[in-house]
Amino acid sequence: MLIDTDTASDDAVAIVMALRDPRINVKAITVVAGNVPVEQAVINALYTTQQCDSDVPVYAGAAKPMHREAADATWFHGKDGMGDQNYPLPKRTAEKLSAIDAISKIIRENEGIELVTLGPLTNIALVLEQEPRLVNHVSKCVVMGGAACTQGNVTPAAEYNIWCDPEAAQIVFNSGMNIEMVGWELSRGEANLNEADIARIRAIDSPLAHFCIDCNRRSLEANKEQSGEIGIPLPDPIAMAIAIDPTLCTRRSTHHVMIETQSELTRGMTIIDRLNVSGDVRNHTAWAQAKPVSVCWKMDTDRWKEMLYRSVRGDY
Q1: Can you list the domains of the chain with their CATH numbers?
Q2: Quick one: pLDDT band at residue 268, thresholds 50, 70, 90?
Q3: Which among 56, 35, 164, 145 has a CA at the least distance from the CA of 102?
Q4: Residue 207, number of CB atoms within 10 A of its CB
Q5: What's this model's pTM, rounded to 2 decimal places?
Q6: Mean pLDDT value of segment 95-102
Q7: pLDDT above 80 (res 284)
Q8: I need a surface site. Which of 17, 83, 130, 171 has the fewest CB within 10 A?
């Protein structure tokens, strides 16, 4: 597995899940600007690997979207992206090779590798612009991003990761890669970590358990401010859980998907042709570029939470 991330609080928990699972061989973590500037995201990724006693290489990537200015999400995750917990600097530093070069190299050297993207798709799009044939060497790309026929979390129409760099998302979604889209809406409602879930993780009483909750302290507050929901939303760990165990997605279907890049009103909207109504006009419109994408509509919330508990406990 290769993880591409704009490491903030929920990304950190997703990374923990991958690094703690003995079934998963994480080849690298590549970092992109998004939730926080790329330099801070690199620090957060390194600190998270340190909490897992892992020396997986971390590579710094794009510092801004392909054609737009950076727009962070520090209001949701805290100024440092990690709940403003004032964590010390990590003991390791990032590798010298750029994330763009590292992704290309790792895919070429690991036929059938799986990608899991937890942030804007800038790094992946830049790689595919240089080497479009690399899609043939990737078995699957699980994208935490988009809002499947529902409202977004940064505008009424769009989810943050896709909105942040819609041009990059369009390149990736139209690349022909085997993509599974795990939208942010799956983290809502009962999927939030409620008070009992938080207490259960706290009761593990390990530094890692407390880290997973503490770094999401600002997210807990922001979630209530934004949506009125009580609990910690964890879209990135949910995507990671589905990447690790695809059966956690209990309803999925394949559709052509397009990303809105022109309109400021609907910038970053994931337009899913759920009823295949674009079929008759696909040869004459922008839909001619659209590729089939697997969309996860529903997941087993209880099982995903159990996976999270096991990850933190180290109980496999």
Answers
A1: 2-313 (3.90.245.10)
A2: very high
A3: 56
A4: 10
A5: 0.97
A6: 98
A7: no
A8: 130
